[in-house]
């Protein structure tokens, strides 16, 4: 595929959306001279913010519906990752033998630079951002793109053969690009556990989509995996590429015998031992654990993955150390918003499944002999996930749980009450509300100096908010306005 091929093509963009990805696709194809029709089930009022950004482009809009003819009388359909593969309108296009593609698929075809792909149920955004931050110490043109509220196609004009591209990839994006049979030159999987079970027919189907990040690699490519995740160890046995393992427990990487199912003896990536981080079998010291400023063991895993890849790209250890100390963290991921009256408020709105919320809670756990000082704001829309373990963690580690209305909240509250601990000195406070403003005010009223208020929902945002970022933005706004 060449950019010249797109001129005068009739392109139907399915899903304008609110995150910016659909907008980027529309802008890209319009710039290439394609005849673009953009269609979304949302109405003009709901898409007002997005539509404002493309109002000057020669684009036909079909809002509040999808029309059959727009999938029959076109040369190409570009689907938003949120559109289900079994959509009746995609079926219409298939019956007419009209190609269906995605921005990621086209990017993989057109990108002239080596790609480092990062996926995982959680941690892919943080890992990608840390890695890009480290690589910038050595390379002048590092491009961070992918599942980050903008389309990768908008980044193409900035990329040349000397660029380094860090591409964050969701399972949906990987699946949408499957027909291209291309995997990144370097791939990273942070973890894989149940998520999006409202979209997938089984957990195994979800796992298979994640594996696409290395499925089409060969022996010239590289795959980085967390050795501490048993299912990732097992995936390594399917890889044709060179496998690197990283680990928060260095002792498990320094053994002599690797699991017998692996095709090859893996390479040793970054690992933690004691209070320091090392790389490789020669135990090269990189930095201290304290150089990573964001709390949480899961953030350590993200940093280890990023360090491992940075060393593959020959970033000097001293530069890695200084870059880690400078890294500020990401919006919506254990983001310190403010400290008011000695109480710290953290925005972790992108924790949209129970395992992510558990990791966030664990990052702030008190020592066993101390009373919990964590006030959690959680709940939202269900993705057909289980909340038993999250409920146990809340009972074990939280002073109070302020629950936002939603289908997941009903399941979570039930599990919390079923698992109320008799060993607590003070009863767990449980409150419910349908308003984020009220949730923050309730949290403030129950807090004392030294406490932490954490928004880490463990559920999707739909119902009360347009998307998870809006949830976080509203939270931060209320916190910053607290007297």
Characterise the protein shown here.
This protein is an alpha/beta fold. Strands 7-8-6-9-10-11-12-13-14 form a 9-stranded mixed sheet, sandwiched between helices. The chain has helices at residues 21-31, 48-52, 69-72, 88-95, 103-110, 124-135, 171-176, 203-215, 230-236, 250-253, 297-312, 317-326, 354-363, 388-397, 407-418, 436-446, 468-480, and strands at residues 10-14, 35-40, 59-63, 76-79, 100-101, 115-119, 142-146, 164-168, 186-189, 222-226, 242-247, 267-273, 276-279, 284-288, 335-340, 343-347, 374-378, 398-404, 429-433, 452-455. The mean pLDDT is 91. Helix content is 33%, strand content 21%. Strand 4, helix 4 and strand 5 form a beta-alpha-beta unit. It contains 17 helices and 20 strands. The radius of gyration is 23 Å and the shape is globular. It has 3 domains: 7-101, Rossmann fold (3-Layer(aba) Sandwich), CATH 3.40.50.720; 104-326, UDP-N-acetylmuramoyl-L-alanine:D-glutamate ligase, CATH 3.40.1190; 335-480, Protein-Tyrosine Phosphatase, Chain A. The protein starts with 9 loop residues before the first strand and ends with a helix.
